[in-house]
Task: structure prediction
Amino acid sequence: MNNFGYHRPASVADAVKALGGSGDARIVAGGQTLLPTLRARLATPSDLVDLRAIAELKGIKAEGDGITIGAMTPHAEVAASDVVKGAIPALAYLADHIGDRQVRTLGTIGGSLANNDPAACYPSAVLALGATIRTSKREIKADDFFQGLFTTALEDGEIITAVHFPKPEKAAYEKFVQPASRFALVGVFVAKAREGVRVAVTGAGQEGVFRARELEQALSANFSPDAAKGVKVAAGNLISDLHGTAEYRAHLIPVLTARAVAAAK
Result:
């Protein structure tokens, strides 16, 4: 049996204090990754800091040039939000296609981003939309946040508090689902903004989510499905596993990108 201290702070300040006062504390957000890890004895933290009672970490609002989503907002709330549907319908669609109903009810955007699973859906939206991750210490641009498999720019004791998404001109998300896990075998988020087109890919990269620069260049010149289909993606830095080879994933990326461009709104 795991022995650990349990903390349920009521504010971000109290959560930071609890993390700082523990030897090897772990944050509990939705618990969709951490709890199975604990059951399998793959993690033995000294303390668990449960964020579910912190009201300031929840909610969705229009703000400035886009929308801001609290870190403890569940996927199901993002999917159902009229604010999200009105500003970035692709983000609501993405949230509505994460895992199953239980995962969408319990899982949170902050937990997904902090975990940075290489096949998670949210990192592709954050990267493609050029979002800003707000924490208990600072603001981090999406391009600086994701740093490799299950690795982010977060420092010890730093907590994600919210994510701000600028509103794009058009955006869409398409994924090829691994049917057992419901994770993305390959997922592609395309966002067209005044500054150009950003394409982020999840489920395929050896280092996790990444921007597909060759597709961005092609779509910035010609935002059409045919432009995406004409791009050949190299397989060298992509994942090969029992679900699909690197070459198969390389083939899927422009196919899914073309579908996303056709669906973008």
